[in-house]
Write a structure and sequence with these properties.
Layout (H helix, E strand, L loop, with lengths): L1 H10 L5 E6 L6 H17 L2 E8 L2 H5 L11 H10 L4 E6 L2 H4 L3 H12 L1 E6 L13 H11 L2 E4 L4 E2 L2 E2 L2 H9 L3 H8 L3 E8 L4 H4 L5 E3 L11 E9 L2 E10 L10 E6 L11 E12 L6 H19 L3
Parallel strand pairs: 1-2, 1-4, 2-3, 4-5
Antiparallel strand pairs: 6-7, 8-9, 8-13, 9-12, 10-11, 10-13, 11-12
Helix pairs in contact: 1-6, 6-7, 8-9
């Protein structure tokens, strides 16, 4: 509880606020819909808008035997939330101690530290121990503690609710275009470039291996059309997510071949890739020469998909 207070106090803008509380994994179009409404209501009420984002996800703390694969890292999530236009983002570490707080105690901390006067939540939201802080409870607490609660309907496309679950489902199928539709942007991976086995260089296609967290959600082991961002530079790219079955079927790697890159190695630099389209599943080839021929076809397909932009 003290940790949550400290984290909220660090993020507090020092004025009355309109807030929403949740995980916001992926910051997809459903989240953006809610954040747009939050900012609109904040302007109307003369308040500062903010997001309290919980990490790790409460489900992971309450059910540690069931690991969660996140659509983006916490750092990326905070960046995306800020880019959505809210005035402040307050990351709060969700601990077993916080999980035991009653809805009343948790809301009281929010009100005291952030001076909350308006709270906006989705239809299935609940706060506090055992999810006891239902809409009815939060409304009652609002009358007592001086904030207004509004519950926003879920953002839908046809019959489908746009949610982190829907994004993970499309990602698991390798449908990168559908993932981009749900997110409102391409699915991205970002991490430092690390030393690899250098086998790509030996067959004429030097790749950059990027390290991402073990808890990141990934699409199927396959070859993908991608765009890569190194500093301010943008490159067409082919990305292989897999285990190198032609050579050793080792650890899962994310290998990026930058088309038309001519420069020195960039180990240690951060590389971001947008995965745009799945080309083919990863497979084992009979020889390095056969692999090289298939990579040449992958590169041609990627160039065709990316055009000249």
């Amino acid at each position: 509880m003290n940790l949550a207070r400290e984290e909220l106090a660090r993020a507090a803008p020092g004025t009355e606020t309109a807030v929403t509380v949740g995980v916001f994994d992926g910051v997809h179009r459903g989240h953006l819909y809610l954040l747009d409404r939050l900012q609109e209501r904040a302007r109307t009420l003369g308040l500062v808008s903010g997001v309290v984002t919980l990490h790790p996800a409460p489900f992971q703390v309450l059910h540690p035997e069931k690991p969660i694969a996140y659509l983006c890292s916490l750092e990326e999530r905070i960046e995306l939330l800020r880019n959505a236009g809210v005035d402040f983002v307050a990351p709060v570490t969700f601990t077993s101690e916080l999980a035991q707080l009653s809805a009343r105690d948790f809301v009281q901390i929010l009100v005291e530290e952030l001076r909350v006067r308006f709270m906006l939540e989705g239809p299935d939201h609940a706060l506090g121990r055992g999810r006891e802080g239902t809409v009815a409870v939060l409304n009652e607490l609002g009358r007592e503690m001086g904030y207004q609660l509004e519950v926003l309907e879920a953002f839908t496309e046809g019959e489908l609710v746009v949610s982190s679950t829907a994004v993970r489902s499309a990602l698991g199928e390798g449908d990168m275009r559908r993932v981009a539709e749900l997110l409102g942007r391409p699915f991205s991976l970002r991490g430092p470039v690390v030393e690899g086995a250098r086998r790509g260089k030996s067959i004429g296609f030097p790749t950059a291996n990027i390290a991402v967290g073990a808890d990141r959600a990934l699409p199927p082991l396959s070859v993908y059309v991608a765009r890569a961002y190194l500093g301010e530079a943008r490159y067409k790219a082919v990305t292989n997510i897999g285990r190198r079955p032609t050579f050793d079927k080792g650890e899962r790697t994310i290998e990026v071949y930058l088309l038309d890159y001519q420069g020195a190695d960039f180990y240690g630099h951060d590389l971001r890739i947008d995965l745009l389209e799945r080309l083919r599943p990863e497979r084992r080839f009979a020889s390095a020469d056969e692999l090289r021929a298939h990579i040449q076809r992958d590169v041609a397909a990627a160039r065709a998909a990316l055009g000249e932009g």
